[in-house]
Amino acid sequence: MNELELKYGCNPNQKPSRIYMEDGSELPITVLCGKPGYINFLDAFNGWQLVSELKKATGLPAATSFKHVSPAGAAVGLPLDETLAKIYWVDDMGELSPLACAYARARGADRMSSFGDFIALSDVCDVDTARIIKREVSDGVIAPGYEPEALEILKAKKNGNYNVIQIDPAYRPAAIEKKQVYGITFEQGRNELSIDNDLLSNIVTENKELPDAAKIDMIVSLIVLKYTQSNSVCYVKDGQAIGIGAGQQSRVHCTRLAGNKADNWFLRQSPQVLGLQFVDGIRRADRDNAIDVYIGDEYMDVLADGAWEKIFKVKPPVFTREEKRAWLDQMENVTLGSDAFFPFGDNVERAKKSGVKYIAQPGGSVRDDNVIEVCNKYGIVMAFTGIRLFHH
Question: Mind telling me the catalytic residues?
Answer without folding.
Answer: 67-68, 231, 392
